[in-house]
Specification:
This protein is an alpha+beta fold. It contains 23 helices and 28 strands. Among the domains are: about 305-510, no CATH class; about 600-790, no CATH class. The strands form four sheets. The chain has a 20-stranded antiparallel β-sheet, sandwiched between helices. Strands 24-25-27-28 form a four-stranded antiparallel β-sheet. The protein has a two-stranded antiparallel sheet with strand order 21-22. Strand 6 (about 190-195) and strand 7 (about 195-200) form a beta hairpin. The longest helix has about 45 residues, at about 580-630. The chain is globular, with a radius of gyration of 33 Å.
C-alpha cells in the first residue's frame, strides 16, 4: 500500500508539472479579491483559488480577451452552456421524473459559483488513533458579489429540499449552519459573512477563516506568487508535497520511507501552478520545487537544455513540432536503480528474463540499442501540397554510433521478416521493403490491409534515424534540411531558447494554421455529433460555430516549455486559447486533420477482419460438406419438425469449438433455459468487428428464401448448386439492425424489390459476402438488383457472374 501511495504522489507531481491544472477559470479575470489570498492557512496541504470572470473587453490589447469578446464566440459560449443545461435536465428527468427543474437550477448555481472569486484549501489530514477514518480539515470561501443574499437564499432552499440544512450554531454572534452527515464523517459548517459564502470542514475552520480574512497572505503564498509572476491572475494552485510525503513516510513505516527515498520525493518541496493573462495572451507556469539535487525519477528528467542546433530537424513551417532531450541509456540505468531499491527480487527476475531474450535475439538492449541512439528526439507535422489532406509527419532521433545501430537494425529487420514469413497460411502478412530513394536506403512496412493510407517508413543515416508515415517524405527531408530554415528561427521559439529557464522539452504549434486546416473537419465532426446527440434528445445547431475569420485574426503560435531553474523543474505555456497545449489542444485538432485517413485505415482493418471471419466460416462449411456430403441445414428440428438451433451451431466442431458444441442440447430450441445460457459464449468468428449491440448476436447470416442455400430443413450439397459455387452467395455480413442471436434459427431472406435491404449501412459502399467456393467478396451497394437476386440463389438457372 505504501508503494502505491508513493508512486501515486510521484505521478501526480509529474502530471501536474507537465499539464498544469488544466482547468482555466476566471477568463478574462476580474480584479483580484485580496480576501482569497488572506484566507489561505499558514500551513496547509493544498490550496486552490480562481478569479471571478469579468466581461471581456473588445478594446483590450490582449488577444485572448479580444477572442472572447467576439460576438460569435460569446454566442457559442452561451449555446454550449444551454446545451449542457438541457442535457443535465433531460438526464435528471429520465432518472427521476420531476427532478429536471431541480437539476437545471443546480447547474445554474454551480456555474454561477465557478464564475465568482473563490478559494479552497485542505488544511490537514490526521491519521486515526484506532480503526476509524482520518480527520480531514479544510475550507472554502466564495465571493457572491452584489447579489449575495439572493444566491444565499437559493443555496438554503436547495439544502432544505435535500434535508441538509443542519442545526443552527452561533459563531461570532451570527447564525451558522452545521451538519455531520455521518458518524465517521467530518462536520461541515457554513454561512454568509457579508458577500462571502464560507464553508468549513472540521472543527474550528470557520473561526480560522474569519480571523484571517483581514490579514496579510501567508508567507509561503507570497513567495510562490513572486516566483511565478502573472500580470492578471486567473487561477493559482499549490500542493505541499513535502508535508504529504512526510505523512506517507510516517504512516507507512520504513518500507514507505524507502519507496519515497528511491523515487526521489524526499527533496521535493512543493508543486504550484498559475494561469492568467499577460500583455498578449494566456500563460500558465508550473513549478516543482526541489531542494538540492534532483533524485530518483526526477533525476531522469535532469537534462541539458536544447540548443538551436538540436532543433534543426524541425522545419520552420511546422504546424506542430516537439523536441526533447532524453538519454535512454541513462534513463534505463536510473530506472533500474529505482526499481531495485523498491522491489529488488522482481527487478532481478526481470533482468534475468531480459538476458534470456537478448541471448535469443542476438543483441543487448542497452549496449546495442540505447547507447548508439542519441539524446535528442524531434517530431513535426508540416503542410504538404496535393489532393490528400495528410500532413507530412516526421520523427527524427539523433544517432551516436551509426555503425553499431545499423547492425542492431539489421538484426531487428531479420527477426521481423522471419515472423512475417511464419504468418498463418491464407492470411495476408505485412512485409518490409527496401528501396533506394535520394541516395539513401529507405525501409517501408507494407501493410496487407487494402485501403490503408499510410506506409510507415524509416531511414538510418550517419547522424540520424528518420521515421515518416510515407517513404517519399524521408528523401525530401534529407535533401531539404540544409537548405531551409528550422523552427529555431521562429521568434516565439528563439526567445524561449534564450530565456532564464532554457527548456529541455519544447512543444510548438502554429495555432492559426492548425485551426485553418482543421476547421472544415471540425465542422463536419460537429454535424456528425449533432445527429447522434439528437437521438438522445439533445439538440445542437451546427451553425453555432463561429466563422473562421472571427477566430483566426486573434490567434498566435503557441509554445510549451519544460526546463530547470535554480529552484526546481518548471514549465510554461504561452498561447491564445486558455488551457491550450500539446496535450489538450493539438491532440483533438490533429485527429481532425487526420480524420479521413484514420477512418479509412480503421475501416480497412475492420473490413479485412470481417472477411477473414467469413473465410473461416466458409472453410468450416466446406469441411462439414466433406464429412456429411452436404452443407448443414438452416436449423435443427425437434420430433415435431419445429426449428431448434441455427446452422452456426452445427459447424462449431469445424471451427475448433468442439467443447462448446457438446454443451448444446440439440433436441431443444435455441431459447430453452439451457441453450439460451450459452448465448454469451459466442465464438469470436461470429462477431463482426463493426457490430455494436447486445452481446450474443451475429451479423453473419445464411441466405434463405426459396432457392437460398439455407432456405429449408435439408442441407444442400455442392452437387445441387447448379448455378456454380463461385456464382452463389452462401452467407452475408448484414447490417446491425439485421443481427440476430447467433444460435437463433433465423436466416437472411432477400427483399424481392430491394435485395440490399438489411445489408447496407454497416460499412461504406456495400457489404461482405461468402461465396460457395469459400471466397469472400465485397459487393457494392450499387450492384444491379436482378444480378444480386440471382447470386442469392443456388439453382435458379440465371447466367450471371459477380462483377
Amino acid at each position: 500500500m505504501e508503494l502505491y501511495a508513493g508512486v501515486g504522489v510521484l505521478f501526480s507531481v509529474l502530471a501536474f508539472a507537465i499539464n498544469g491544472l488544466g482547468l482555466p477559470l476566471g477568463i478574462p479575470p476580474a480584479p483580484e479579491d485580496p480576501v482569497m489570498s488572506a484566507v489561505a492557512p499558514p500551513q496547509c496541504l493544498a490550496y486552490v483559488t480562481w478569479a471571478g470572470t469579468a466581461a471581456p473587453d473588445s478594446k483590450s490589447t490582449n488577444r485572448t480577451e479580444q477572442l472572447l469578446a467576439e460576438p460569435e464566440v460569446q454566442k457559442l459560449i452561451g449555446a454550449v452552456l444551454q446545451i449542457a443545461k438541457s442535457a443535465i435536465r433531460t438526464s435528471a428527468e429520465k432518472e427521476q421524473p420531476g427532478q429536471g427543474q431541480v437539476a437545471e437550477t443546480t447547474f445554474d448555481l454551480v456555474t454561477g459559483l465557478l464564475t465568482r472569486p473563490a478559494a479552497l484549501f485542505l488544511a490537514d489530514v490526521v491519521p486515526p488513533s484506532g480503526n476509524g477514518p482520518p480527520t480531514v480539515t479544510g475550507g472554502m470561501v466564495v465571493n457572491l458579489g452584489d447579489d449575495a443574499e439572493k444566491v444565499w437564499a437559493t443555496i438554503v432552499a436547495h439544502l432544505e429540499k435535500a434535508g441538509l440544512n443542519g442545526e443552527k450554531v452561533k459563531i461570532g454572534g451570527a447564525d451558522w449552519n452545521r451538519l455531520k452527515p455521518a458518524p465517521d464523517a467530518p462536520e461541515f459548517t457554513w454561512g454568509l459573512k457579508g458577500k462571502y459564502l464560507i464553508v468549513g470542514m472540521g472543527s474550528g475552520q470557520v473561526e480560522g477563516i474569519l480571523e484571517r480574512m483581514g490579514q496579510e497572505p501567508p508567507k509561503w503564498l507570497t513567495a510562490v506568487r513572486k516566483r511565478l509572476p502573472v500580470e492578471r491572475l486567473s487561477m493559482f494552485a499549490f500542493v505541499n508535497v513535502k508535508s504529504i510525503v512526510g505523512k506517507v513516510s510516517e504512516q507507512g513505516g520504513q518500507q514507505a520511507a524507502n519507496v519515497v527515498q528511491a523515487l526521489g520525493l524526499t527533496n521535493v518541496t512543493a508543486l504550484a501552478t498559475v494561469g492568467g493573462l499577460d500583455a498578449d495572451g494566456y500563460v500558465t507556469k508550473t513549478l516543482v520545487g526541489v531542494k538540492g539535487e534532483a533524485e530518483g525519477v526526477l533525476s531522469i528528467l535532469k537534462q541539458k537544455p536544447l540548443t538551436a542546433e538540436d532543433l534543426a530537424p524541425l522545419p520552420k513551417d511546422a504546424i506542430v513540432a516537439a523536441a526533447g532531450r532524453m538519454d535512454l541509456d541513462t534513463a534505463w540505468q536510473k530506472g533500474l536503480e529505482i526499481a531495485s531499491a523498491i522491489a529488488p527480487a522482481e527487478t532481478q527476475k526481470f533482468l534475468s528474463q531480459l538476458g534470456m531474450v537478448e541471448a535469443q535475439i542476438g543483441f543487448k538492449l542497452r549496449e546495442d540499442l540505447f547507447q548508439p541512439l542519441g539524446d535528442v528526439w524531434c517530431f513535426s507535422t508540416a503542410p504538404t501540397q496535393g489532393p490528400m489532406p495528410i500532413p507530412r509527419v516526421l520523427a527524427v532521433v539523433k544517432v551516436r554510433d551509426a555503425k553499431r545501430l545499423a547492425a542492431t537494425h539489421e538484426k531487428l529487420i531479420n527477426l521481423a521478416s522471419a515472423a512475417m514469413a511464419n504468418a498463418p497460411a491464407g492470411r495476408p502478412a505485412p512485409r518490409i521493403n527496401r528501396s533506394q530513394l535520394g541516395g539513401h536506403e529507405v525501409f517501408t512496412l507494407q501493410l496487407p490491409q487494402p485501403g490503408v493510407p499510410v506506409a510507415p517508413s524509416w531511414c538510418l543515416t550517419d547522424k540520424e534515424l528518420v521515421f515518416a508515415i510515407m517513404p517519399q517524405a524521408i528523401p525530401a527531408y534529407l535533401a531539404a534540411k540544409d537548405g531551409t530554415g528550422s523552427l529555431a528561427e521562429v521568434p516565439a521559439v528563439a526567445d524561449q531558447l534564450r530565456g532564464d529557464c532554457p527548456p529541455f522539452v519544447l512543444v510548438y504549434q502554429n495555432t492559426p494554421e492548425l485551426v485553418r486546416a482543421a476547421y472544415p473537419a471540425l465542422q463536419m465532426m460537429l454535424m456528425t455529433f449533432s445527429s447522434q446527440l439528437r437521438q438522445q434528445g439533445i439538440e445542437i445547431n451546427p451553425g453555432m460555430l463561429p466563422s473562421p475569420d472571427a477566430i483566426l485574426k486573434h490567434l498566435r503560435p503557441s509554445t510549451t516549455l519544460v526546463g530547470w531553474s535554480k529552484i526546481g523543474l518548471q514549465t510554461s505555456s504561452s498561447q491564445t486559447v486558455p488551457g491550450e497545449n500539446m496535450f489538450t489542444s493539438s491532440g483533438p485538432i490533429m485527429v481532425a486533420l487526420l480524420l479521413p485517413a484514420v477512418q479509412a485505415a480503421r475501416e480497412a482493418a475492420r473490413r479485412s477482419q470481417s472477411m477473414n471471419n467469413l473465410k473461416q466460416i466458409g472453410l468450416a462449411l466446406h469441411n462439414y460438406q466433406d464429412a456429411n456430403r452436404k452443407l448443414p441445414p438452416a436449423y435443427t428440428t425437434d420430433k415435431e419438425g419445429k426449428p431448434g438451433l441455427s446452422w452456426r451451431v452445427l459447424i462449431l466442431p469445424y471451427l475448433e469449438e468442439q467443447e462448446l458444441f457438446k454443451q448444446f442440447r440439440l433436441d431443444e430450441p435455441w431459447d430453452s433455459e439451457h441453450n439460451k445460457a450459452l448465448l454469451a459464449k459466442i465464438p469470436k468468428t461470429f462477431v463482426s468487428p463493426n457490430y455494436s449491440g447486445p452481446k450474443g448476436r451475429t451479423n453473419y447470416l445464411g441466405i434463405g428464401g426459396q432457392h437460398g442455400v439455407f432456405g429449408g430443413k435439408e442441407g444442400v450439397s455442392f452437387a445441387k448448386m447448379t448455378d456454380g459455387l463461385s456464382n452463389t452467395v452462401v452467407a452475408v455480413e448484414a447490417a446491425n439492425a439485421s443481427a440476430v442471436e447467433w444460435t437463433r434459427p433465423d436466416v437472411f431472406v432477400p427483399d424481392a424489390a430491394n435485395p440490399t435491404k438489411g445489408l447496407t449501412g454497416l460499412r461504406p459502399g456495400g457489404f461482405n459476402a461468402l461465396l460457395g467456393d469459400g471466397s469472400v467478396r465485397f459487393i457494392s451497394e450499387k450492384i444491379d438488383a436482378e444480378v444480386l437476386k440471382a447470386l442469392f440463389t443456388y439453382n435458379g438457372g440465371e447466367a450471371v457472374k459477380l462483377p
